[in-house]
From TrEMBL:
Protein name: DUF2189 domain-containing protein
Segments passing through the bilayer: 42-60, 66-93, 114-139, 164-188, 209-242
Keyword match Membrane: yes
Lineage: superkingdom: Bacteria
Coiled-coil segments: none
Length: 262
């Protein structure tokens, strides 16, 4: 634990602002305003993510046990994929030009922090896909080859397998969500270490468990809605959530100490 003590101490320099329970709805409202003000970068990201989701569906169409984990694992790596849109929201906040070039510049090849954080999220997503696939293959009462098989044997089955699968996913996703809810925008906005951003994210969740639980439910619900529309809804949902996540970070983390930091 002593290895992390400097990061823990530095994270404590960032205050966590109090928020009411329903503040996540305000983040969505501000995120929608950003998407309307700079639709180009957001829709470009949304199209890319929708195409990626469609590619997953095609590649795993005969292996729904793998597809279920891949789609849910997509939620774990989404904060990284939205990096460019955090930069767009920051530019709008600063009254600077907010274009696709602004989003692309956020992917600095010399920024090792983003690489490290990306690898951690990729590891978490891959771990969940493998765990989900193993769980469904082991406990499903019948082979799962098509989405209908998943609905009949897992969702509607009498074994409560679907509930157990959701619970397993929740247990694995909760620490990832707590580690990333403000970490990625913070890494973009300030040159702090990865662990400083992660510990700050955990402090935010621990001080506001109910609003952040609502935020997690909104993210999951809107993403599932986007997927249920044959991925077309993701074109709007993903950039909307990305811009909203930037406002969540700005609302939750007190950055007034930054002028004092080297």
């Amino acid at each position: 634990m002593r290895t992390f003590e400097p990061a823990v101490e530095q994270s404590r320099r960032f205050g966590v602002r109090p928020i009411p329970l329903l503040r996540p709805l305000g983040w969505l409202a501000r995120g929608w305003q950003d998407l309307r003000r700079a639709p180009g970068p957001g829709l470009a990201h949304g199209v890319a993510m929708a195409l990626f989701g469609a590619l997953l569906a095609v590649l795993a169409k005969e292996h729904v046990w793998l597809l279920a984990g891949a789609f849910s694992g997509f939620l774990l790596v989404a904060p990284l994929l939205a990096t460019g849109l955090y930069a767009v929201s920051r530019a709008l906040y600063r009254k600077q030009p907010a274009t696709l070039a602004t989003a692309l510049r956020a992917w600095k090849p010399d920024d090792g922090r983003l690489i490290v954080f990306g690898l951690l999220l990729a590891f978490a997503g891959t771990g969940w896909v493998m765990t989900s696939a193993s769980f469904l293959l082991t406990f499903s009462p019948a082979p799962l080859r098509t989405p209908l098989d998943f609905i009949v044997h897992v969702v509607l089955g009498e074994s409560r397998l679907f509930e157990a699968w959701l619970m397993l996913g929740g247990v694995m996703a909760a620490p990832v969500f707590a580690s990333t809810v403000v970490a990625m925008p913070m890494l973009l906005d300030r040159r702090v270490g990865v662990m400083v951003a992660v510990f700050t994210s955990w402090r935010v969740v621990m001080q506001h468990p109910l609003p952040l639980a609502l935020w997690a439910a909104l993210i999951m619900g809107l993403t599932l809605l986007g997927m249920a529309t044959f991925m077309l809804g993701l074109i709007v949902v993903m950039p909307w959530l990305a811009h909203s996540s930037w406002h969540a970070y700005r609302d939750l983390v007190d950055t007034s100490v930054w002028d004092e930091m080297p």
